[in-house]
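Renewal narrative, Specific Aim 1. Our central claim is that a sequence can be written position by position from structural information alone. The example that follows is taken directly from our test logs and has not been curated for this report. It begins with the structure tokens describing the chain, in the order in which they were read.
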């Protein structure tokens, strides 16, 4: 039988029910039982959605109270010693302490690291393992979930991170990851037994690393691990996604399992090779519905692939989304405020379940059975691709007229820095921040009141101006050199620009989990992008009117705008990126015309957007540098361009940083220890560099000596004339009480250091 299924469903809830329940539990206003009840209700609701849409197998185990990789660590009893590894069950509070460092009951501890799940914006909790690690089944949630699904009358498939992917994503202290594999496989065998006993028919083991370039030892490990997992107590589907299997195709298809899932959205061309190599007992699950984007599927196109597979494999074909639907919002029906034309083009997770079922029915019972639905999908898709709303002739013409000269500053950095110094008269070791200041509850409330019409535009504007005035006063008081307006008008650095660009829409409820209870609403880029009018000039100009110190204009760069949005699928990423860059360039030019002496173009997503496979990286990085160049290339030499990037592991992009040719680059480095520093020296960058001197991601406040030590270490590596002192990221997630002392200490360090260093041509010991 051709089976329709999903690899996973969003767990957060259409109205972010999970977020609210978690936050109530963390604050102590509900107990664990109430949290678990809310979670069970969400799971059951999502299973019902799958069932009612017509899916044959429902998926359990895709739910998580925080993160599915953390669930795996808890299930395996892989708890770091500082968080109370013992022989008992991993209880709920230990689980949350691993993720957040704290929980309602028990002491605090440093949380486990968190990082991006492949090339998505979802973050997972990095498993912390050590040489000789033992695994034991220590948190049995998943068995209860499967049993609950079965008790609800569903045919259940359990979804888990596969053993190789789990190991690959972990950090192993004092040992090699693969040495832990035999012990891990032993634990997985026990898990599979438990799942079978709970009533699961299938288990889906997610092995997305099969879409990466893998060392030969890992490919061998796949084979041996899956052999050692046998005999299976239930049927096993190995799920691959986020790219083509490429050179791993044979390894994946010869695994001794009952089925393999392949991503045919990112890699439709792999279908033929896969069909040639799959043996005649395995099921092939076709990932035909895009789990990473929000457009209605081209069902005709999907059916062509599905039919080709069915002709070869008969009923051993399954229909599925490309990956878990975790990465898209829950339901388009919640977007009543969206333009109806655009809304009709969209498919969120709930709609995608229906698309899966439609495809299965068309495939097995003939197109006529779902003829109306197919026709509707066809019409809407055609309407989108020919709609006037997505086409802007002027933008297209501007895009064609982009020249290499437009993508570069007219003077080299050496010349620019002199002009800028003459204008800004900054002291040695200038101090600045990354842009945002604390987003207080009052500020968030004002934004919500404005959006929902409870306060009018004029009073909202006054509210923001008051906030800006306070932020400027505070920075003068702290003694910072290059000030910012504090970004009070932005809830989110991408969504805010999305709201102001033509060709981009924002949603009201399109929440997607970023990590734990934190969600984002990625904008939807549906057409040619244009900036109809200036966006930030008013705020920046107002901030500058309040101070004699330079105020830095603050913009989000094109790569980040693209990376953190859903992009149209009818234009190449390169074109979308360059259109975004044109819009940012317009804003940069307006800021300059308004007298803004320093403009920062943030590209925090640049590093994480790096394609998964090495061969795709060079074109991506070239585009990133060209797009940034286009944003900044129009300004005069005396305007100082900054950029800011998040996350460690800069080695891969140092050459790109050089190519971007910003006058100053600030980077998040405090958390990555000293790993970045040697690379920085070797890269021989000539521009100003501000590797954050303290970590703003924790409420912990650094002492002056810690900041001083950090600065001194940086001075051993970078010439004193190049170093900037700044925190490592924006301050929006901190409270005012948490930022004041560190910023004063940072300024103090700068003053103390200035008194001991001197570079000709710089004002000495300013403000000291
Ligand atoms: N300017 C932004 C801020 O300060 C940068 C945020 C980021 O790097 N993610 O909030
Ligand atoms: Zn940052």
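The sequence written for that structure reads:
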């Amino acid at each position: 039988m051709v089976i329709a299924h999903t690899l996973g469903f969003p767990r957060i809830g259409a109205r972010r029910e999970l977020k609210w329940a978690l936050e109530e539990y963390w604050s102590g206003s509900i107990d664990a039982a109430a949290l678990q009840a809310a979670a069970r209700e969400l799971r059951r609701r999502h299973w019902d959605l799958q069932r009612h849409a017509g899916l044959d197998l429902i998926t359990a185990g895709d739910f998580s109270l925080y993160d599915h990789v953390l669930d795996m660590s808890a299930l395996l009893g892989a708890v770091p010693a500082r968080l109370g590894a013992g022989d008992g069950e991993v209880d709920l509070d230990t689980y949350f302490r691993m993720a957040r460092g704290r929980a309602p009951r028990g002491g605090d501890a440093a949380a486990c690291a968190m990082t991006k799940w492949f090339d998505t914006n979802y973050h997972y909790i990095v498993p912390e393992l050590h040489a000789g690690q033992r695994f034991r089944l220590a948190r049995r949630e998943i068995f209860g979930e499967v049993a609950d699904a079965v008790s609800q009358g569903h045919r259940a498939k359990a979804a888990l991170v596969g053993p190789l992917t789990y190991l690959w994503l972990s950090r192993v202290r004092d040992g090699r990851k693969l040495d832990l594999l035999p012990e891990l496989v032993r634990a997985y065998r026990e898990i599979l037994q438990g799942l079978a006993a709970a009533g699961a028919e299938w288990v889906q083991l997610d092995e997305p690393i099969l879409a990466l370039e893998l060392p030969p030892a890992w490919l061998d490990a796949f084979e041996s691990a899956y052999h050692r997992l046998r005999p299976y107590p239930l049927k096993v589907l190995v799920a691959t996604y986020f790219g083509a299997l490429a050179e791993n195709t044979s390894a994946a298809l010869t695994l001794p399992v009952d089925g393999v899932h392949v991503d045919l959205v990112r890699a439709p061309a792999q279908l033929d090779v896969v069909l040639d190599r799959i043996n005649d007992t395995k099921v092939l699950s076709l990932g035909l519905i895009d789990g990473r984007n929000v457009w209605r599927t081209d069902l005709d196109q999907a059916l062509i692939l599905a039919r080709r597979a069915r002709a070869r494999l008969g009923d051993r074909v399954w229909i599925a989304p490309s990956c878990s639907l975790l990465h898209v919002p829950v339901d388009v029906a919640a977007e009543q405020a969206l333009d109806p034309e655009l809304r009709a083009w969209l498919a969120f997770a709930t709609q995608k379940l229906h698309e899966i079922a439609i495809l299965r029915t068309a495939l097995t019972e003939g197109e006529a059975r779902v003829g109306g639905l197919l026709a509707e999908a066809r019409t809407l898709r055609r309407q989108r691709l020919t709609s006037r709303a997505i086409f802007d002739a002027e933008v297209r013409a501007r895009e064609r007229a982009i020249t290499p000269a437009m993508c570069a500053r007219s003077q080299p950095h050496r010349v620019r820095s002199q002009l800028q110094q003459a204008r800004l008269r900054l002291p040695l070791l200038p101090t600045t921040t990354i842009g945002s200041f604390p987003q207080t509850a009052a500020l968030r409330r004002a934004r919500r009141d404005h959006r929902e019409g409870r306060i009018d535009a004029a009073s909202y504007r006054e509210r923001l101006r008051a906030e800006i005035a306070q932020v400027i006063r505070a920075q003068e008081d702290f003694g910072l050199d290059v000030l910012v307006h504090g970004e009070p008008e932005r809830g989110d650095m991408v969504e805010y620009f999305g709201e102001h660009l033509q060709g981009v829409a924002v949603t009201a409820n399109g929440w997607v989990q970023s990590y734990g209870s934190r969600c984002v609403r990625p904008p939807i880029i549906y057409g040619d992008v244009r900036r109809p009018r200036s966006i930030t000039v008013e705020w920046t100009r107002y901030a500058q009117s309040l101070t004699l110190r330079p105020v830095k204009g603050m913009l989000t760069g094109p790569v980040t705008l693209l990376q953190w949005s859903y992009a149209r699928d009818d234009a190449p990423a390169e074109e979308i990126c360059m259109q975004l860059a044109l819009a940012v360039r317009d804003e940069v030019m307006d800021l300059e015309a308004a007298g803004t002496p320093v403009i920062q173009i943030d590209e925090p997503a640049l590093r994480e957007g790096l394609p998964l496979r090495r061969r795709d990286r060079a074109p991506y990085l070239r585009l990133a540098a060209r797009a940034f160049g286009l944003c900044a290339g129009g300004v005069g030499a005396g305007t100082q361009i900054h950029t800011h990037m998040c996350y460690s592991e800069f080695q891969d992009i140092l050459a790109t940083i050089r190519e971007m040719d910003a006058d100053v680059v600030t980077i998040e480095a405090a958390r990555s220890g000293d790993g970045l520093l040697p690379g920085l020296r070797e890269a021989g960058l000539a521009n100003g560099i501000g590797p954050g001197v303290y970590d703003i991601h924790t409420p912990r406040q650094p002492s002056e000596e810690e900041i001083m030590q950090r600065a001194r270490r940086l001075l051993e590596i970078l010439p004193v004339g190049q170093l900037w002192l700044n925190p490592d990221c924006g301050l929006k997630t901190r409270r005012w009480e948490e930022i004041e002392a560190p910023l004063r200490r940072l300024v103090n360090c700068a003053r103390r250091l200035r008194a001991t260093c001197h570079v000709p041509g710089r004002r000495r010991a300013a403000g000291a």
